[in-house]
Amino acid sequence: MISNSQKKILLTGATGNLGVALGTFLKKKYFVHQPLRKTLDITNQRQVNAWVQSHSFDSVVHTAALARMKTCEENPSLAIETNVIGTANLVYAILQKEKETQKEIRFIHISTDGVYDGQKGNFSERCETLPYNVYGWSKLGSECAVRALKNHCIIRGSFFDPQNLIFPTAATDVFSSRIPLDEFVKAIEFLIENTVCGVLNVGGERKSDYERYLMYKKEIRPCTQEDILKDSGVPMAKDASLNCSKWQKLRGEF
Ligand SMILES: NC(=O)c1ccc[n+]([C@@H]2O[C@H](COP(=O)([O-])OP(=O)(O)OC[C@H]3O[C@@H](n4cnc5c(N)ncnc54)[C@H](OP(=O)(O)O)[C@@H]3O)[C@@H](O)[C@H]2O)c1
User: Fold this and answer.
1) Judging by beta carbons within 10 Å of its beta carbon (0-12, 13-18, 19+), is residue 177 exposed, middle or buried?
2) What is the atom index within ligand 1 of the atom nearest the CA of 68?
3) Over the stretch 52-89, which tens digit does the pLDDT of each residue have?
4) 235 lines ligand 1 (CB under 6 A)
5) pLDDT surpassing 80 at residue 203
6) 67 lines ligand 1 (CB under 6 A)
7) CB of 141 shorter than 6 A to ligand 1
8) Which residues of 130-169 are buried (b: 16+ CB within 10 A; e: fewer)?
9) Which residue among 47, 52, 112, 181 is best mutated to probe the pocket of ligand 1, counting the most ligand atoms within 8 A of its Cβ?
10) Which residue has its alpha carbon closest to ligand 1 atom 21?
11) pLDDT-based confidence at 251, cuts 50/70/90?
12) Which of 21, 157, 213, 221 is the most exposed place for a label (fewest CB within 10 A)?
């Protein structure tokens, strides 16, 4: 068994919101490869193969993605290229490496609560997936590639950074199970250590965006989903809340 300090992790998307927090946290315990896009552009299959071949790692946390819904809507080909093809490139290279080395690599994939239809909420892992925008479809496509790996965990959820709530308003009629960034980071670390496989919803209590953000930003003002839609025009969930009983049970068991 490999001890934590010897364990090597490949973290993709290390410059992103989640990647920065995760990199900082994981570096305290593990050796973490954090290649920048110029070194490991997931859309460049040759570069991905070469990088994966020439580095040693036991686990991957794949956060790199085109994660902005508006950008995905405006540029669906880039969403497919990054989220679907980019993830498939990485999975392909890892499958080759596993075959050559006869060693399984743990793959933690950050998906989204946006793969469900976003209407009635309380989605369990067994619910039908029916994304409501390009971002969600592209993330669902990424999940398909990841399922080809034996030792994978697909995390569906969403997070927010309490220190960086930039919007002046939040909707009172939009619900989710979104959790603070540091909690999401800890959940990922837990899933590196505990080899739970398959799809896992990770989240907290169902709350409206307004109710949730008000706890961290007292001056935030209430608005409605209609107000947000008028501004962005990007289809969004009304209720993306998750049934996280599988996750709660796992945490209790370990
Ligand atoms: N934000 C949320 O609430 C939320 C909710 C559910 C799921 N997620 C998922 O969580 C993950 C992280 O989200 P985030 O908010 O941290 O995203 P983010 O801040 O937009 O960061 C995206 C990261 O992906 C990298 N990236 C993009 N295209 C790449 C490419 N072709 N090759 C290599 N790296 C590339 C970016 O690198 P550069 O710095 O070079 O651009 C950046 O490091 C994503 O998979 C997202 O789908 C996010």
Assistant:
1) buried
2) 20
3) 999 999 999 999 999 999 999 999 999 999 999 999 99
4) no
5) yes
6) yes
7) no
8) ebbbbbbbbbbbbbebbeebeebbbbbbbbbbeeebeeeb
9) 112
10) 16
11) confident
12) 221
Report the candidate in 157, 151, 167, 25 with the shortest Cα–Cα distance to residue 97.
Answer: 151
- Tokens 């920048």, located at residue: 36
Binding site membership of 201 for ligand 1 (Cβ less than 6 Å): no
CB distance 242 to 201 below 8 Å: yes
44 lines ligand 1 (CB under 6 A): no
Nearest CA to 197 out of 130, 162, 147, 144 is that of 147
Domain-wise residue ranges, the chain: 8-162+179-205
Q: How far is the CA of 98 from the centre of ligand 1 (A)?
A: 25
pTM of the model: 0.97
With beta carbons less than 8 A apart as the criterion, state whether 102 and 162 touch: no
What pLDDT shows up at residue 195?
Answer: 80
* CB neighbour burial string for 77-100, b if at least 16 within 10 angstroms, e if fewer: eebbbbbbbbbbbbbbbbbebeee
Torsion on CA atoms 172, 235, 110, 168, rounded to nearest 10: -40
Domain 8-162+179-205 has CATH 3.40.640.10: no
Query: From ligand 1's centre to the CA of 121, what distance in Å?
Result: 24
Q: Give the tokens for residue 14.
A: 């290390």
Q: Could you tell me if the CB of 18 is within 6 A of ligand 1?
A: yes
